[in-house]
Amino acid sequence: MQILFFVIFTYRRLAYHDNRYTKLTPDTYKAWEAVEKEAGLQLVYNTGGVQFTRKDEMTHVIDAYAKAMAENNISFERLKGSQLRAKFPQFEIDDTYDTIYQPIAGLVDAALANSVHVQLARANGASILEHCPVQKIEKLPNGRVLVHTPKGVFQCRRLIVTAGAWINHVLGSIGVHIPVYVTQEQVTYFATPNVKDFTKAKYPIWIYHSPKYDFYGMPMHGNSGSKIGIDAGGPVVSVDTRNYEPDKTREQAFASLLGKILSEMAIDGKTKYDISKFNIDREAITNPDWTPTLYMGTGGKVPTKKSSTSKL
Predict the structure, then answer these.
(1) Whole-number Å distance between alpha carbons of 157 and 25
(2) Hey, what domains does the chain have and what are their CATH numbers?
(3) Cβ atoms < 10 Å from Cβ of 2
(4) pLDDT value at position 135?
(5) d(Cα 29, Cα 5) in Å, to the nearest integer?
(6) Residues of the chain with pLDDT under 50
(7) Taking a C-beta distance cutoff of 8 angstroms, is the pair 107, 12 a contact?
(8) CA gap 221, 247 in Å, rounded
(9) CA-based nearest residue to 117, from 43, 185, 202, 59
């Protein structure tokens, strides 16, 4: 088995769209509380959680979340967009949005949690073999299992495989294949001059449901900015081909067009594309008081100047 500590933090919530997941979630909090008590460290931070979408797009998803939570007696509020905005002014949305607020939600410091689990396991008698991938497993006639690794062959009565993306590397040796796939994801941390408004005390975790992707965000934790990403939206890769480099495909989404514009400018001195908004004398460069602003959830609408929202 291989373990990689590459997730800095991840969200924790009671809200899921399917009753099979939702009914298990209350016990996840009990398990985390037990780990925190034994370790003497805080791993889970409650921030509240928000799900939202445009009413004409994915309201059926919000309905599914509400139904699953109601069936499991989990507290939540079904809010209009304006009501959510009143609660969290960071979200520049109106009543064309359908939202759910769930007060018991937050984030887990995943890197610290992984380390704590390993240390507590050792304290309770477990042997942790690092840098020791499973090469194959073998079932013996007596029902026991052999686990082959670079550090030796181990025999056990029961084997629990939690290999994640490497699941088929392990199970393939006994002819078992699980249809899973791996995607390479990329997140962004947005810095802000309004630091206090995006701390765990004031800013919830959130998921925006669109027809193509689910976008998610979290408050500042262990980094200088709010984390935003797309859930399972990256290219399909394998555990052997994935890497930790920035996604060049996403970085260069406009590279071909920009190359064409620049070549036209170099050869003809002009381009057929309207690039007036990107001139060197634009306000963002010439006005020392200009404030860059990112509005979440506007769907392309420009907010009014009366808005009291904080700016990333």
Answers:
(1) 30
(2) 1-128+183-312 (3.30.9.10), 129-180 (no CATH)
(3) 15
(4) 93
(5) 22
(6) 1-9, 11, 253-255, 293-312
(7) yes
(8) 23
(9) 43
